[in-house]
Amino acid sequence: MSPLPQKAVCVARNYRAHAQELGNPIPDEPVFFLKPPSAICPLEEPLVLPSWSNSVHHEIELAVLVKNRLSNASLEEVRAGLGPVAVALDLTARDIQQKLKEKGLPWEKAKAFDRALPLGPWIEGLDLDQPITLELKINGQTRQKGNTSQMIHSIFALAQEASRYFTLEPGDLLLTGTPEGVGPLAPGDQLELILADRWRYLTQVAHGR
Ligand code: ZN
User: Fold this and answer.
1) 19 pLDDT exceeds 80?
2) DSSP labels, 184-208
3) Which end of the chain is more exposed for a tag (fewer CB within 10 A), N or C?
């Protein structure tokens, strides 16, 4: 068992086509934000959409578990310090985020709410230097598909850069951005998340809010 996470460090706009679909410029350095432990929940439990948003978007992402403490880490320390991976959803209240962005305000309400980070089980042994495919199907249709070679900043580069600002503690998570195709979820939607063409997870959106 790994220690409980203290935080998830997430990155916005790490896939070019996703930045473009939301009309955002390609950032030249990673745009980080955090999710608290209260956002993390098991992927297989029904997804709960908050009542105060009319547009909660799915963002399928690769999550990486931090094994060793990383603070201002070298590339070697980062390579030794990251552990298994999992598939995750970075649920985003897009309508709320849009209002906050327009005012130049922080995104926490839109990104860090309760159960905003459904997380699948950890998978050992995947090579982080090789492209890892992520695919999200909703009601049987592929909505998002991409792989980690399409990232603007690599997994190791993200962890190294993040560790300059936030100490990554064992048990913490790094979320690495979403490929294009994000969109709103509706009550009753059936989701299938596929990691590396091999691990498949089913979940659904709850009917109540
Ligand atoms: Zn995201």
Assistant:
1) no
2) E--TT-EEEEEETTTEEEEEEB-S-
3) N
